[in-house]
Structure formats: C-alpha cells, structure tokens
Specification:
Elements lengths: L3 H6 L3 E12 L4 E8 L16 E5 L10 E9 L4 E7 L3 H7 L6 E8 L12 E6 L4 H12 L5 E6 L8 H7 L1 E6 L6 E2 L15 E5 L2 H14 L3 E4 L15 E4 L3 E4 H4 L2 E3 L8
Parallel strand pairs: 7-8, 7-11, 8-9, 9-10, 11-12
Antiparallel strand pairs: 1-2, 1-6, 2-5, 3-4, 3-6, 4-5, 12-15, 13-14
Amino acid sequence: MESRAQLQKSNKFEKDFKLTSNEQLTGDISLLRLRPADSSFLLKDANIQPGQFVEVQISQSPTTFLRRPISVNFVDEDANELLLLVRNAGAGTNCLRNLPLDSILNIVLPLGNGFSMVEGLCHPLLVGGGVGVAPLLYLGTKLMDKGVKPTFLLAAKSASELTELQLFSSYGDVIISTDDGSAGTPGLVTANPALSSGQWDYIYCCGPLPMMKGVAKIAQQQGITCEVSLENMMACGLGACLCCVEDTKDKGNVCVCKEGPAFDSRRLKWFD
C-alpha cells in the first residue's frame, strides 16, 4: 500500500469513515451511508468521478485480509456522505452488510478511471444489472448537472431485486427489465426493445459480464459507443498486484483498477 503522503500526492486519500446508515434494500443488497470520521475532510475535495470506486478495509471480519473494491453509488456533498451499494458476495461483504451504526471503516478513494463525460450528448442510455446499477446513479446526476437527461435501463432477476428506483427516477426516465416478468419487460435486458430502438447516442453499462457483452454487441451493431465498467477481481486497487488484468486491443494487458474500470467496449477483445 502506498503511504498516505503518496496517496494524497496522486489525489487519492486514505480516510476513516463512520457508518451513519445501513439499510437492507433486498435480500442480498444493502445501502451504506458513510461520513468522514475526521469532520475536516470534505468529500468534494476528493473530486470523485462517476464510475470510480473505493477500497474498503474490513477489519471487523477476521477472515478478510484484503480490502474490498466497491463502486461509488453516490456522493452527497451537502451531507458530506459517501453512499455504497454492497452485495453479499462472501465473508467480507456480508460483514459490511451487518455492521452496526457508528462502525469505523478505513477507505482508500477515489480509485480508477470512471466513465467519460462526453460533450454534446443528447440521449444517453445507462444500462445496469443487479448491483451493477450502483455507479449509474451518480453518473446520472452528473449528466443532469450538464443539462443532459439520461434514460436508465435497469435489470434484475425479479421486481424484489430492483433497487433505488425512486432515486433513479429523480434523475431521468426509467425502463425496467426482469427475468421473470414481475416488473417491466420480461426477459433479459438485451431483449428489451428500448435497447435496440436506435434512439441513443451513447450507452453506459455495468453489470454481469454476459450482460455487458450482450449490450456492447448490440451497441456495436448500431454504431453506438458503449462504455462498460468491468468488475475484474481486484485486490489492491492501485495496479500493484496484477489480479485484475484485462487484454485490450490497443495496449495489451492492462490493470482494470488503474486503466479502468470504465472502458470503451471497442478496446476489449470481446468479439474478435
């Protein structure tokens, strides 16, 4: 791990955060609100961008030795709070979902390169599946700040697994797909007519790998740029451990945690 001085020099911070809210949204997903334990640290100074992530140390879990990478769901600058969506994926994340209020978590932020804030967009589509919807909320707010109203295409296995719908609808139009048809259009998100409607000038996508590949393929067929947020296994978040390497067309093997996690899908060797 880099020293705190090195982190700050690279516009990254290692800070303790206090858990102010821990809300279970679904059976597997919880929403954590965290405020800097040092009240003098303001999140706006970190200049967090949509699509970036944080690395969370889970000292409360004796079997979790490495930090866990988690996408930034939202930054509430007025409340000076960081919002994270956490899905139960093992001992570490399960521990996070069950922490009591006022627990202290050490976090390194912000990490990686987020989504591109492209000038001149008119009709961007933001596609998310499962907990992959997490970074799209903050992206949507930043697009709205630029005067661009996004459309969200949100997917889940069933209606009970959809999260933050009211918040998403505050920042754009919402279209829903569920595998079982319990809400919105039945079937996989790639079968939703909205995705293939041809009305979008840019697509952002985050979710399970097969879903992202399917969305990227449709975008490619329509000549639309599609950015995807990869969820490769990450241990350090700083490009040192080489756990998250992805093969690209232009640079060969790169670390997703530093080069991404957001990539133009055309750079990836998905369809060669």
